[in-house]
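Purpose: get a first structural picture of the assembly so the mutagenesis plan has something to point at.
Setup: two entries, given in the order below. No constraints added.
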Amino acid sequence: MPATILKGTIVSAPSLGKLDITEKGYLIAEEGRIKGVFPVLPEQYAGAPVEDYGDALILQSLADLHLHAPQYPMLGMGMDLPLLDWLNAYTFPTEARFADPDYARDIYRRLARELMENGTTRVCMFSSLHREATLILMEELERAGVTGYVGKVNMDRNGIPALQEETEESKRETLLWLEACQDFQHVKPILTPRFTPSCTDGLMDFLGKLAAERGLPVQSHLSENTGEIQWVKELHPDCSQYWETYAKYGLWNDRTLMAHCVWSDERERAAMRAAGVTVVHCADSNQNICSGVAPVRRMLDEGLKVALGSDIAGGDHLNMFDVVAASVRASKARRMQDGWETDFLTVAEGWYLGTSAGAAFFGGRPGFAPGNSLHAIVLDDGDLPQPHPLTPQERLERCVYRRQKNALRAVWSSGRLLFSREK
Amino acid sequence: MPATILKGTIVSAPSLGKLDITEKGYLIAEEGRIKGVFPVLPEQYAGAPVEDYGDALILQSLADLHLHAPQYPMLGMGMDLPLLDWLNAYTFPTEARFADPDYARDIYRRLARELMENGTTRVCMFSSLHREATLILMEELERAGVTGYVGKVNMDRNGIPALQEETEESKRETLLWLEACQDFQHVKPILTPRFTPSCTDGLMDFLGKLAAERGLPVQSHLSENTGEIQWVKELHPDCSQYWETYAKYGLWNDRTLMAHCVWSDERERAAMRAAGVTVVHCADSNQNICSGVAPVRRMLDEGLKVALGSDIAGGDHLNMFDVVAASVRASKARRMQDGWETDFLTVAEGWYLGTSAGAAFFGGRPGFAPGNSLHAIVLDDGDLPQPHPLTPQERLERCVYRRQKNALRAVWSSGRLLFSREK
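Result (structure tokens, whole complex):
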């Protein structure tokens, strides 16, 4: 297998807020693994074929660590409704349709394609509770080249009749699903209790033991809004905080993703840091549903792991460029809410969260580090007007803020070229 | 001239928060003026040619009441900088380039095209201080079919050497500009003192008298951030509030637009209501530059006139669909900031602000009222997945939130078809 050599303006995020830039540089991978970024082509590759993208930006691809695949058809709707009405009028009926495999196939094929076309090559997704549709989702992601984790949702209480399982059924279906998804190469299972109010103690206990036995990662929701927190307190009077309802069943460790964490206080954040839990910040969703604004700056200062999620369809942007911009914007809302006392996220910081911080959950080291699986996109911004000759930093910033028609020229995922378009 | 008859799913905003819907309806105009919306084709039009858009949405086009045309090339850049650094590093140098007519021609042609392609047919724009470039901007808007007002900016203090006028020069250039723009049919002049700190008393006095003599509208900035308000207080110790620095020179009446008004308190808002001044709310910009969140709900409750502006390049979205969504989102940030005590804007309310409320500044009545100039867009959202059969309201909401590639099928501006694309 020959080396993959990409030439262009290479920009990566090696640490929070920092950008590594190599103009006219070479990003080299062998067998899908990055060898490094070089300002000059190393001698051993002389004569090897080079994908020369000219002046185009070569960037890390994006990682979306929280989204609800079956909510894709309702993207951008119902957001004038309060959370519970929104769930009942839109979310639950929409998810219930995924009992139909043909519907699931059609929707998930489109979703996988749109993710790939937006440069999102890594995901952690909630499916619905349906085993078959979950497997279809995994197939379609695998086919499109999108990598990551997908979870069949577990929910055995507080749903609606069309969208709820019996406890034993939920356990059995989970085991059957795990059995059936062993053959996927790039898409792996993640255990997915919807959130504490949706799962009985018996089901949580089962999932925690299963996670430990099989070394499976876990994803769920935490402290999204104050009403939910109060509800969890009533359901679990033995737990003084929401996170403990996961911890007590073994669903709280360094392979755990918790979406939102808008209202996580110092003690809950300390528990996340201690366990190595990753917070998935979903800025658009939190604003759309008026949940609040997560204290991301504080989380970062405290050393928590924070990545980004589109959280469709509470969030209304599937494109992670928009999600990065939304995280920057939300940090400014938080700054204003805090009386201008907390710093906002810079674009470079938002970019790190949307790329390197997300990749870390899959074992990637920050930036284009040697040994990382090759996940990269090529962006051509040459059609936009120039106020002055732009630095690569300025070009990246503009790409984050400004959607550019047909700007994406290529997408590489796990070493494979998924997509390529001529200039 | 034959009647223009558009057939489709007609949705318009007759009042704040209300939508008028006519499925399979006919929107009819004669000589560029709307006759009405009809569920059945009136007999007198039998046999007349009908533009049948099938199930597509026929909507009012959008009005952008505050944007800085010469900042278009820097859209989406520099927003990690504090306001004054941003002005000095980006805004002023970028605007200074418009001394070059060729550069102006290239940039303004692209801007006019992008506005039209986004369905924005009415604008109130700041140009730069350059007379020639301002005329080029007006020519290019006129050519593209975008209608509205453009202002040569006046600024005779606190600029940078490359972007500031002498007082007499500013007056003279303004008169020459007004002379030269008499022949435009759809683009008219608006007096544009940049903001109080940029204009000496002598210049403000001149502009106020000119506005009165010639019946010209006025646009400027008001109470965007607290530092600016303090600065104005120092410059005008005789005025107890910012707005009075405009009012005392006759720049404060029902043909006045004031952008931002983030920090306008009850007294300043009462002065706006009494004079009939229109507030232009620029949600993205206010968040990007951390100015604050304008109390739009309160303004509306108090009966103020409020329209929307993209405020590029403080704002990062030129597309008014995004600006409508941003206004809804900002109202949710404000709600959270107010301890969940103020209501957010619904999508229907945001849509009214971006269409009917903006059109009002040009004399339009709300919605597709008979007598209005025909400003309409046709949107085809048929390619998106459906969670269930959607109502026209749901389709509108999704159009606001979700960018759809190639969804725009036609744009009508001031009775003329500017743009049309086959399905």
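The CA atoms of residues 35 and 370 of chain A lie 5 Å apart.
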